[in-house]
Every structure is written in structure tokens, then in C-alpha cells.
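Hi everyone, sorry if this is the wrong subforum. Our group has a chain we'd like a structural model of before ordering constructs, and none of us has done structure prediction before. Sequence below.
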Amino acid sequence: MRLPALVVLPLLLGTIGNAAQAAAPKKAAVDPPFLQSAYLWTQATDTDLGGSGDWGMYKSWLGISKLGAESDPGGWGSWGEATEGYYNNRWGEQQTRYGTAMLPEILLGIASMPYDPTQSHSWNEKLAWAGKTWQLEADNDPATMAHFVTLGENIAKWNYKSVIIRMDYEFDGGWDPYGNLNVMPNMPGNFIKAWQNVVKTVKATVKAKDPNIKVKFLWNPTDSNVQIETAKFYPGDAYVDYIGFDSYDADYTGVYKSGVQPDKATQQKAWTNSVRPRMQWFSDFASAANASPANPKSRNGYIAGKNVPLIVGEWGLWQVDAKGRGAGGDNPSYIQNMFDWMSDPKNNVYMECYFETPSDGVSTLWPGGHPAPGSGNPSWGTSGTPYPKAAAKYRELFGKIAPPSIPTVPTNPSAYAGIGKVLVSWRMSGGSPLPTYAVYRGLTADTVSAKPIVSSLKTTTYLDSGLTDGKTYFYKVKAVNTQGASSYSPPASAVAGSPANYLLNGGFETGDASLWSVTVGSNPHASYVERRSPGIAHSGSFQYTHWASSPYDLTLSQSTALPNGKHTVTAANQSIYVVLVGPDVQPAGSNQYGSQANFANLRLTDTPAPAVPEASTTVTFGVLLALGGLSVAARKKSVRS
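Answer:
Right subforum, don't worry. Here is the predicted structure as C-alpha cells:
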């Protein structure tokens, strides 16, 4: 239940500490009898499986060894976005790199057609266009089906090993134009014929390219038959590998009241009377016992004796909202009930995918995934999950959390000076539950205060401000959890105000990338410079991209507020590339498009002093690093390979 377009947002490595806030539940005794998967908002591009991307951090938060991924196209406004696998190339490459033992399945959300390729039609015009397109697909029109040939070719080209096409998911919902099948001509016949033609086209194309690639199809309506009689649109067992549905802790029967946090009895009543019956319909529908001519629940085109496995394509909690539908809110009993239902062998669940995404209904359990208050967008924030009780139950049942232990000592402490401030950073600690951090300060390494200057930090950085320029400040860090505290970290020191460095992270090349966003490269042979927006030299938005022989180069970037005026980037002895986004930044030794420079101590400083110091501009400064030029420490920090 969401808008399908994907918002791609950068991920700060320093937020890895945000996942530390849930209490450590009991360790799961055995693996669940189904594959686990998750949908994350940055899923299509944030594919660093080594641990520094959302997928890797979420997997670590659960403490599990393998996790599937669900990925949507980048948007459904064109044929390329909707049907050809747009934005999904990196998942295939990562599945090849790490293997199906770690990344067992990829769910690709694909539509049968774009919503509106002209981006200008009215709703009724979109409906008419969709109806004609369903007919073309049912007739196996070559020009239309060529888009699905491209999808099959891309699956092979992008090195997928095992992929499940979640085609036309929530097709019975009607909130998107192509899903209004109840007003389309020649339905359900056109839907069924179109589905069958797409399946045959994609599978034949992939098989011709690489017969070892496993391509399967998931028939995934909603769980409530909201627009049509869903069963009539089943394409037949020969064209469906899995039957799926989307289920959330909201009901349509009035058990939950809008704007009211229900008590435990009401939450259980909603499960018994509303949520579970809608899911059970799919279990019954997929069962071989119901596939017979005499049974009204029989599937169209059933194969005698076949149990079709289930996939829970989306599931999750739903927030209590006075303006929305009634929902269960923080409901650990829903998590328990879903786990029990999916674990029951009678329901034959192959895979589940928790919807870890703030969308039309916020369902995020992972503390790193809840949107920041007042952000105005569904980006990841630091406020933690809105469902702490349910999150603890989820980790208990779906995770394998280590036994409680005292945190290990934080490592690699660093300190970077600014005007009247010092930024302190360190590497996160181990321990269960994951720790928070306390920072101690002194004027010598041996005289740091017994009382921390700040505690309960969820991140691995702290900006200490209000300092006296010219003084040297020493810092040590402890990690703290419910089991106790670690020893002090080694000291780190800096002289406040000497000199100003707006990046506040000048030593990233030694391994500290805590304030830098990371993008992992994919194309092993491309090298190009692209001007992203118009503007004069040193203005506008620019990007430099270079992929060396390894497909896993890194692009690092950091947004920084600068006083207005001219500023200079200086560095030496490290080969990387400059990326500038924003006005009034003069990179030393490069033009406005970016070029190669030598970097060791990376700084962004005023040259001369800011012309208008009371005003400021936010710029993004970035670099691209070829892995061969990184130090060992930097490689481990950034790649986690």
C-alpha cells in the first residue's frame, strides 16, 4: 500500500549507531521456516551489502546471515521505468558478488505498463490509454512486448541469479489508473492473456541469454479485493510461481477506530475478525485441496495436486491517525500473530517482506528508518521507531540477537578543528544490546573529566562547540549499554580554531568516513563528466563519475554550510576526483566540471575571508576514490568487503 516511485536518498555512515536503541530480546532458537526480506526506501540503489548501506545495517540489526531485498523501479512514468527494470541493475551485481547464500532472492516490482507515458493525460485519458494497452499486450503486439524483451535481457545483463518478478502488485487496488480493471474493456480476459504473454516473453528471453538464471513470477493483489473479484484475474498455475498479498495491521470492519490507540483485546479482535481472515483466503486459494472443479475457491487454470507457495509481498504495522483508517499502532501481538501464521506449514509461506518504509502508512520498526520529525519528506532520521514494543518483538522472533554483553572499547577516535569547535568521531563498538556513547573532555590526555560532556549518543560523532580558539582539547569515548560500560577509548585531540576547515572531516583518507555519504559504483568501464544543471563556473550542480576496472569504486560526498564568499579546496598526495555542488567554491587545480587532484589532508577553507560572513550557503563537496588508491584503513571503513 504505497506510491511505487522510489525516492533515492544518501545515507550517512555515521547513522549506523542509530540502530542501537532497541532492547536486546531473547535469541531466536531456530531460523524461521520462510525466507526473510525487507523493503527499504533506498533499496534500489543503496546496495552496499558489506554493512554500510541501509540493507546491510538492517541485516546487522536483526543479526541474521541472509536477507532478501525488494526493489521498485525508479518511477512508473515511462516504459523504461515501469517495465524494463530501471534502477534495478545493482542488485543483480551484488547478488553475483555475494551469492544467494547471503542475498537469496530479489523481488522486482514491475508494472505491465506506465501510468502515463505522456505525463499530461487526465485521469479518464489515462484509463482509456491503459485499456488499449491491456488489449495490445493481450494480442502480443510486438512493439509493446519489446519492453519485456528488454526486461529479460537486462536481467541477464545485470547478472541476477534468482529473481522474482512481482508484476502488477496491488492490481486490484484502483488507486493507480492501470489498476482500475473493473472499468477496462474485455476484462479479466485481457489481464490474463497479457500476464501470460509477459511471462512467456521474459522467461524465454532470459533462458536464451543464460539458462542458469532463475526467473519466477509473483501474482500479488492486495488482501481485500477492493475493486474487483480478485480470483477471476488469476492467470493460471503454469504462469504463476507464487501467490502473494499485502497485509497491514489495519482493518475494514470497524474494530479499530480512527485516531484511537487500541487496547490489547481490541488488537487481538482485529486480528481474529479482520486481518487474519483476509490472509487466510490466499492460503486456501493456493492450496491443492481447493483446486478442483467442484470447489468455488478453485483457481483458474489450476494444476491438479499443486500447492502454490505464498509470498507476503508487504506487511507491517499501521500508525494511529485521526484522519486515517483505524489501526493497531504499537502492536507486538500483530508481530507474534504474523510470525505464527507464516510459520504454520499449512500456509506454505515461502518468503515474507517487511515494509520498512515511511509511506502512506508508516510501518518502520528499524530505529534507523523512521522519518525525522518535521523533515517534510520520507528520509531516514534519528528519532527511532514509533513502535518500540513491536520492534522488540520483531527482533526476538525474526532476528538472531547475540546474548547480552558489555560493549567493546570504541576505536579509531579522531578530532577535527573548526572555529570555536571540535568534531570528535570514532568507530562503533560491539556489545548486546548495541551501545550508546559518552564523550569525555580535558586539557590533557590524562585529565579528561570523570563526568561526560555528553552521553546517550546514538551516532558515532559529536560536535563540541563554544570552545576557545587556540586551546588544545583532548577527548575520550566510552560505549554504554544495559550491561555496563567499556573502558575509555584512546585519546584524540585538536586545537580549536586552528585552522578553520568547513568539511570537519579532513582526515577521511585515513579511514574515517563517518560524515560522508557513500555511493557504490556499478559500471566497470565507464568514465565521464556530467554537468547536472546550468550555471557559470563555480555555480550550479555538477557531478564527476569514473569507474575503474573494479565495479566497486566509491563516491563520497558531504553537505556543508559555508559563509558567503569564495572558498578553496586544498589537498595533496592522494589521487581522487573532485565533485562540487553549490555556488562560490573554488577547487584548487580543477575546473568547474571537476578534475583529478592529489589529496592527503582534505580541507575546505576561506580564501580570502568570507565577503558576507553573516550569511551562508549550503554546498556539497564530494570525491570519488578508486579502491586501488585507498589505504587499507579507508577500504575497510568504506567498503566493509
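For your construct planning: The longest strand covers residues 612-625. The CA atoms of residues 147 and 634 lie 42 Å apart.
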